[in-house]
């Protein structure tokens, strides 16, 4: 895959239009509220695979509706090819599936605090692969802003994970089945995010079409796993919608809309911006927990707030500028 040369149509890292800001605010609110509405409206009896598959179906439906609305559906349907689809969406979808498997292995062998802290390294790997694949450079100020963001994410992780004691298992098991998988998963996350950005910005692959393709690939992988998984057995025994109520659709559809927004932000502003949004959403979660559950934000959250604001401000204010060569 040839690295892309920056051009006028490629967004400058750190520069965000009003449209991107709008999408970013929506995604921040959705991501921040998702865990709360999921706890409230999805009962413990609901089979995880059924909610995930329904979410993927909802993503496909939403994407098709939006494509029909902006008039791109017929054109994209005519231009679609299997090879183009596999190149743009198949590889990132496979990488994300592998990343999710690695994270599941890691989470079982690490305490939540260590897991969350190591998982934040995906922001740096996203910036690294964005440079390698797209040749998008970061200024010194932006690199500093990324480290501020990671510091804020670590503080928020400490606030969330401090209630769970550190694991005291076998050191080798913790290293090879805990630390290594989450770090490799972070590398895969950065790679997949950069590949999605490459497909949308360089190959001009529609973000809506990419959402549909990745949802279909992910759903097929999930369906294949149900032949031997506990969820598959539960579905065969109790039915696909076991434990569902009409309100269960609220978090499922909200999560689907969040997936659409991720695709749009990655296309318009890149994977690093998505990282800023996701860390900012952790603060939204803390605030919503205080408003609706009476749980006050931790000291770590209050310290992380100015770090996030500063990192976003610095990243936007000091983009990388190409130095003009003197004659």
Q: What is the H/E string?
A: HHHHHHHHHHHHH
Largest sheet: none
General shape: globular
- Integer-rounded radius of gyration: 20 Å
Q: What percentage of residues falls in helices of 4 or more residues?
A: over 70%
Family: Belongs to the nucleotide-sugar transporter family. CMP-Sialate:CMP antiporter (TC 2.A.7.12) subfamily.
Keywords: Membrane, Transmembrane, Transmembrane helix
Pfam families: Nuc_sug_transp
Subcellular location: Membrane
Describe how the helices and strands are arranged:
Blueprint: H1 18-41, H2 48-69, H3 73-79, H4 82-109, H5 112-119, H6 122-134, H7 140-161, H8 171-201, H9 207-225, H10 230-238, H11 249-268, H12 271-293, H13 299-317
Helix pairs in contact: 1-11, 1-12, 2-9, 2-11, 4-8, 4-9, 5-7, 5-8, 6-8, 6-12, 7-12, 7-13, 8-11, 9-11, 11-12, 12-13
Protein described:
This protein has 327 residues and is mainly α. Helix content is 75%, strand content 0%. The chain has 13 helices and no strands. α8 packs across α11. The longest helix has 31 residues. It is globular. The N terminus is likely disordered.
Brief description of this entry?
It is found in: Membrane. The protein has 13 helices and no strands.
Key features of this structure:
13 helices; globular; 75% helix; mainly alpha
């Amino acid at each position: 895959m040839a690295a892309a040369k920056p051009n006028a149509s490629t967004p400058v890292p750190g520069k965000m239009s009003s449209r991107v800001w709008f999408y970013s605010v929506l995604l921040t609110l959705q991501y921040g509220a998702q865990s709360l509405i999921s706890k409230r409206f999805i009962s413990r009896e609901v089979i995880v695979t059924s909610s995930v598959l329904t979410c993927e179906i909802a993503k496909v439906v939403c994407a098709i509706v939006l494509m029909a609305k902006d008039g791109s559906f017929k054109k994209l349907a005519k231009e679609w090819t299997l090879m183009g689809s596999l190149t743009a969406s198949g590889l990132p979808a496979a990488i994300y599936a592998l990343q999710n498997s690695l994270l599941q292995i890691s989470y079982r062998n690490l305490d939540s605090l260590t897991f969350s802290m190591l998982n934040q390294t995906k922001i740096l790997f996203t910036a690294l692969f964005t440079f390698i694949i797209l040749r998008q450079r970061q200024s010194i100020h932006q690199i500093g802003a990324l480290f501020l963001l990671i510091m804020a994410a670590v503080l928020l992780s400490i606030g969330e994970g401090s209630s769970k004691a550190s694991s005291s298992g076998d050191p080798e098991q913790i290293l090879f089945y805990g630390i290594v998988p989450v770090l490799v998963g972070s590398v895969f996350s950065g790679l997949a995010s950069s590949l999605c950005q490459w497909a949308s910005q360089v190959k001009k692959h529609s973000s809506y079409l990419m959402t549909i393709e990745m949802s279909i690939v992910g759903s097929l992988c999930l369906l294949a796993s149900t032949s031997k998984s506990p969820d598959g057995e539960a579905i065969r025994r109790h039915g696909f919608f076991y434990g569902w109520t009409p309100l269960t659709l609220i978090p499922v559809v909200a999560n689907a809309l969040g997936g659409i927004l991720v695709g749009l932000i990655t296309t318009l502003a890149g994977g690093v911006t998505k990282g800023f949004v996701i860390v900012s959403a952790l603060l939204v979660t803390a605030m919503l927990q205080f408003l609706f559950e009476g749980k006050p934000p931790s000291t770590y959250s209050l310290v992380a707030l100015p770090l996030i604001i500063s990192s976003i401000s610095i990243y936007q204010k000091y983009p990388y500028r190409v130095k003009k060569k003197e004659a």
